[in-house]
Amino acid sequence: MTRPLDGITVVSLEHAIAAPFCTRQLADLGARVIKVERPGSGDFARAYDTRVRGQASHFVWTNRSKESLTLDLKNPDAMAVLRDLLKGADVLVQNLAPGAAARMGLSFEALSATHPQLIVCDISGYGEDGPYRDKKAYDLLIQSEAGLLSVTGTPDAPSKSGNSMADIAAGMYAYTNILSALLLRGKTGQGSHIDVSMLEALSEWMGYPLYYAFEGAAPPPRTGASHSSIYPYGPFAVGDGGTVMLGLQNEREWKVFCEVVLGDAALASDVRFHTNALRNTHRDELQQLILGVFAVMNTAEVEARLDQAQIANARMNDMAGVWAHPQLQARQRWQQVGSPAGDIPALLPPGRNNRYDYRMDPVPAVGEHTEAILRELGLDDAAVQALRAKQAI
């Protein structure tokens, strides 16, 4: 079985989430990903928490199927190893502090003269130029800068997303840009320089609220888990203590919702509610009507009525609910992968392909592959021991 990126070697100077999320997806497609970590402690994301049998939740999510090579990049001997490794690499990914890679001579300009086919992907908070170039950036800070916090939360308080939205956005665009650069290299024979900004990645995902506030118009209000401009579209409490999420998209669905779900066909033509704009204006009144009907029903009964009316709906699952989700189970989306603490479950990457299976190899221990990689580069026992003595690895 051949995977799309079999034979591609990626060297990554990565930490935290954005770059590791990018390179894990490259590994999913068969790429060999060599993760360069600090000797001893490794990627600082390894210490974020201990929720997965002593391992960090972020780390096990973004680092399976990789090889861990420890190098102290402040040591000239370690830098010599890295440069030797890059001779056989197809892609270099880095999300070090602003300007750090360039100061080490690892910019695209410095490398392309001797490695013209090398693809270099730099991931940073704000990009390689502009007035914010040197600012440090973390996920929550970029969620703030990109305006996500301003449209997320309740009228009383903004709220960040519950996962690393800015990191994920940047990692996804780095991933797709690298795939594009590999395709381009197949046509031109030349590598590319990719400059991915977390701010630009998340700002792209803010397209709807940006255009909603076009030319100084009022931005979408913060409406908790409800849609800011479509109603009813959001969570509704049910009599058994559950919560059902439902969404209406058009007037046909509104009429069926009134008749089948609420049991009040006349409500569809009520002057307060007969268009989405009016329902949005009078959402408090409509909410009380809906909650009154749902209060005497249980979650399964509400879901049954919504399904009968073909109204889109969902349960508001917690994490335990997702772990046990019957659809993920039925489609066999969970698979076991190895880790330093034993096998753990991992979701298969989204998208099934009938021509190949995704690579689902273990999460590495810090420096697990250091000696093997050094020997591939031609170093003998004495040379490896010398590097250890100098604390280069």
Which helices and strands, and how do they pair?
Layout: E1 9-13, H1 18-28, E2 32-37, H2 57-62, E3 66-70, H3 76-86, E4 91-94, H4 100-103, H5 108-112, E5 119-124, H6 139-145, H7 165-188, E6 193-197, H8 198-205, H9 207-212, E7 233-237, E8 243-247, H10 251-261, H11 276-281, H12 283-294, H13 299-308, E9 312-315, H14 319-323, H15 326-330, E10 334-337, E11 344-347, H16 370-376, H17 381-389
Parallel strand pairs: 1-2, 1-4, 2-3, 4-5, 5-6
Antiparallel strand pairs: 7-8, 8-9, 10-11
Notes on the protein architecture:
This protein has 393 residues and is of the alpha/beta class. 37% of the residues lie in helices and 13% in strands. It is built from 17 helices and eleven strands. The chain has helices at 18-28, 57-62, 76-86, 100-103, 108-112, 139-145, 165-188, 198-205, 207-212, 251-261, 276-281, 283-294, 299-308, 319-323, 326-330, 370-376, 381-389; strands spanning 9-13, 32-37, 66-70, 91-94, 119-124, 193-197, 233-237, 243-247, 312-315, 334-337, 344-347. The strands form three sheets. Strands 3-2-1-4-5-6 form a six-stranded parallel sheet, sandwiched between helices. A three-stranded antiparallel sheet has the order 7-8-9, with helices on one face. Strands 10-11 form a two-stranded antiparallel ribbon. The longest helix has 24 residues, at 165-188. The protein is elongated. The mean pLDDT is 96.
